[in-house]
């Protein structure tokens, strides 16, 4: 997994609650058997005025000029500012893959859906939760000031605004360590292979029917 | 010591190890796979030179991309017209073959939507941990199993280690007491719950559905409810084990053999929350007060009783919510104050992992029997959840009822629930759908989805617009009232 320690980036404010995974990456793009290449279709139905399909050359498609990521001032954004319950809906990891592939490294919102939250961290994205009032204020600042950038430091768990204000955020210790070190959590879990083996033996003894199959 | 909730019990039964950082390793008993979220996981295993930890826990079936028309299906994978879809299904077949994982392939009678197949086979059992790269894995919690959706990285993690790294969730109880009105179903209960707590109301919680109205439900009804726990933000939905659970599982192919049956049942009976178990949050609903529900917006929480009107954005909560409602009405082509029953429909979809089991089809057939789909409906389709559901429905003659009424009778799969195959809505079309998500574009680009129960969907197909299934008989179709009253 890609490491994350500190990131400074342009902020794009997406002013919409309950952004679901179908909006983040519509289903027709889930047919890919790869992990990469979803960026051009991130927010496909919002970004383009026509219907997208896999394998298309997106350069030829009409852009929706009203959509935030199409506005010139937000080109190159890598910090997404969002509203409550971002990422609700399906478990598709294609959603964080698309966000990451597009170039986002950090998403800030008042709340995230559980499965999306989990999936995002496994792909090197840092998700930060601030209360509604703080997020509101960041929205106002980002919209008011062109070129608004945030400096996000994971080690010290701080976001620094252009005016020098420091906002502290919470992050789970395990996720933080995985991000800082770019750890493969399967490798980590396999260090506990003996404990898993032991558990499995006891489990099988106590409930042998769980280990039987039809036929 | 205070008692334990069902969730607490399931958690401690599967706890391999607690780590210093507050996470825990949880052992997984059943891993279901489908073609959309697994290819990258198998690829990851291959790249790292890893093997599945335990083969007999995995069970796979293709469901999202499979065509549902008989002609295409008869050709097997070759009948999948879209080459990208076909490759995805073939990749699942290849991966299952090369890793030695049991799979019900496209034309196996046992193939179907993964959340219909698991329970139907008895592969989902009380006391298990069940995961799948699919958020509607919450469905399996209806059996008193700890079941939730996972992402593709976690699919790979489970394949490689038989475990997941988890944090314990909080406990919520949703208690539905009393008796449902005639024509009101499990789907209406869960939509009413989501309407009440919102799509983020369950975030961070495992929700246990309890109360007499839940106890009175069949396993099919309980699955419908747990299925949509995720639409309330909860990864996990649960119902305690009782006689209904045990009877459902008896003699299913993957159920415990004769040798272990009694021991298993004794073990399962412990899978209830203790009387004094503390819940972090309790939500109560009166079953008798629940009307048939219809969603009018682009989020499952945008729901109302069939007798209600489309709401006015100005009256809807804070500014963010108001904007959301306005945008939803614009997308849906509806206006504030419009009667729900005035919404004209173009298509009707009866299917999905929420409502494609035999009981759902029976409920819809009761309403459709002896009636005709309205001329204004371009397509009304019934898509059984599995090959075995389809077979049973045909044995009961339900296919004939649907066909005579003008519904199409299709082959099993996810179909128009998310329109990854050829079944989809056109731009601007309104659909009465028994599925679980009404997100923008979910059923097709620009499509407008209204979530309802199977009986409400069937009634809407006949009328051409939403009607209250409870007084549908009076609307003057071929049948008398008593017929519909039972529905
Ligand atoms: S029926 Fe719909 S919700 Fe269920 S698994 Fe298939 S696509 Fe997902």
From TrEMBL, chain A:
Residues 1-132 form the Aconitase A/isopropylmalate dehydratase small subunit swivel domain. This is 3-isopropylmalate dehydratase small subunit. Its EC number is 4.2.1.33. HAMAP family: LeuD_type1. One of its GO terms (molecular function) is 3-isopropylmalate dehydratase activity. Heterodimer of LeuC and LeuD. GO terms for biological process: L-leucine biosynthetic process. It holds the Pfam family Aconitase_C.
Automatic annotation (TrEMBL), chain B:
It holds the Pfam family Aconitase. Binds 1 [4Fe-4S] cluster per subunit. The keyword Iron applies. Keywords: 4Fe-4S, Amino-acid biosynthesis, Branched-chain amino acid biosynthesis, Iron, Iron-sulfur, Leucine biosynthesis, Lyase, Metal-binding. Residues 8-464 form the Aconitase/3-isopropylmalate dehydratase large subunit alpha/beta/alpha domain. Its EC number is 4.2.1.33. Heterodimer of LeuC and LeuD. NCBIfam families: leuC (TIGR00170), PRK05478.1 (NF004016), PRK12466.1 (NF009116). Belongs to the aconitase/IPM isomerase family. LeuC type 1 subfamily. This is 3-isopropylmalate dehydratase large subunit. It comes from Chromohalobacter marismortui.
């Amino acid at each position: 997994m890609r490491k994350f320690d500190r990131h400074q980036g342009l902020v794009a404010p997406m002013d919409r609650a309950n952004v679901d995974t179908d909006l983040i990456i519509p289903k027709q793009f889930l047919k890919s058997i790869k992990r990469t290449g979803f960026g051009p279709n991130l927010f496909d139905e919002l970004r383009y005025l026509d219907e997208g399909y896999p394998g298309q050359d997106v350069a030829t498609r009409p852009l929706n000029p009203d959509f935030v990521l199409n506005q010139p001032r937000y080109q190159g954004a890598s910090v997404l500012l969002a509203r409550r319950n971002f990422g609700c809906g399906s478990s598709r990891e294609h959603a964080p893959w698309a966000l990451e592939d597009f170039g986002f490294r950090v998403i800030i919102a008042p709340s995230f859906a559980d499965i999306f939250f989990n999936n995002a961290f496994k792909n090197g994205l840092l998700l930060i939760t601030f209360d509604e009032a703080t997020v509101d204020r960041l929205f106002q600042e980002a919209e008011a000031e062109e070129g608004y950038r945030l400096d996000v430091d994971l080690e010290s768990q701080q976001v620094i605004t252009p005016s020098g204000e420091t906002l502290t955020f919470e992050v789970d210790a395990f996720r933080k360590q995985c991000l800082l070190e770019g750890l493969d959590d399967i490798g980590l879990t396999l260090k506990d292979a003996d404990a898993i083996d032991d558990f499995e033996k006891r489990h099988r003894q106590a409930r042998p029917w769980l280990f039987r199959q039809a036929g | 010591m205070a008692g334990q909730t069902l969730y607490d019990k399931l958690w401690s039964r599967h706890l391999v190890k607690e780590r210093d950082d507050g996470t825990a390793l949880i052992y997984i008993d059943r891993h279901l796979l489908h073609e959309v979220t697994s290819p990258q996981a198998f690829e990851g295993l291959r790249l790292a030179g890893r093997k599945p930890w335990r083969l007999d826990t995995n069970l796979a079936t293709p469901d999202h991309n499979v065509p549902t028309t008989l002609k295409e299906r008869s050709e097997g994978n070759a009948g999948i017209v879209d080459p990208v879809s076909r490759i995805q299904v073939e990749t699942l077949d290849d991966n299952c073959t090369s890793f030695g994982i049991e799979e019900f392939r496209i034309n196996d009678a046992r193939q179907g939507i993964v959340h219909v197949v698991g329970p139907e086979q008895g592969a989902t059992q009380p006391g298990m941990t069940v995961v799948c790269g699919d958020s509607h894995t919450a469905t399996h919690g209806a059996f008193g199993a700890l079941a939730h959706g996972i992402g593709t990285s976690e699919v790979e993690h489970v394949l490689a280690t038989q475990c997941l790294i988890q944090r314990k969730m909080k406990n919520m109880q949703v208690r539905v007491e009393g008796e449902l009105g005639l024509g009101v179903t499990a789907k209406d209960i869960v939509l009413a719950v989501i309407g009440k707590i919102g799509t983020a109301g369950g975030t961070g919680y495992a929700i246990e559905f309890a109360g007499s109205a839940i106890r009175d439900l069949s396993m099919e009804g309980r699955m419908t409810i747990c299925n949509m726990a995720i639409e309330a933000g909860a990864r996990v939905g649960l119902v305690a084990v009782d006689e209904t659970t045990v009877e459902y599982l008896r003699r299913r192919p993957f159920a415990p053999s004769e040798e272990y049956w009694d021991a298993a049942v004794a073990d399962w009976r412990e899978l209830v929350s203790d009387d004094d178990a503390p819940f972090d949050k309790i939500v109560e609903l009166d079953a008798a007060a629940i009307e048939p529900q219809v969603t009018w917006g682009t989020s499952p929480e945008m729901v109302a009783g069939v007798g209600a009107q489309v709401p006015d954005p100005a009256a809807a909560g804070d500014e963010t919510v108001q904007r959301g409602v306005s945008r939803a009405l614009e997308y849906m082509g509806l206006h504030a104050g419009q009667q729900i029953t005035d919404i004209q429909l173009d298509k009707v979809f009866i299917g999905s992992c929420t409502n494609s089991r035999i009981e759902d089809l029976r409920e819809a057939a009761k309403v459709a029997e002896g009636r005709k789909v309205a001329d204004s409906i371009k397509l009304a389709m019934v898509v059984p959840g599995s090959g075995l559901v389809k077979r049973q429905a045909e044995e009961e003659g339900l296919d004939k009822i649907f066909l005579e009424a003008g519904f199409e009778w299709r082959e099993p799969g996810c179909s128009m629930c998310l329109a990854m195959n050829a079944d989809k809505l056109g731009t601007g079309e309104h659909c009465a759908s028994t599925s679980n998500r009404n997100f923008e574009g979910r059923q097709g680009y620009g499509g407008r989805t209204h979530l309802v129960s199977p009986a409400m969907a069937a009634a809407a197909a006949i009328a051409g617009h939403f009607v209250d299934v409870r007084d549908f008989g009076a609307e003057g179709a071929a049948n008398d009232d008593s017929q519909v009253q039972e529905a």
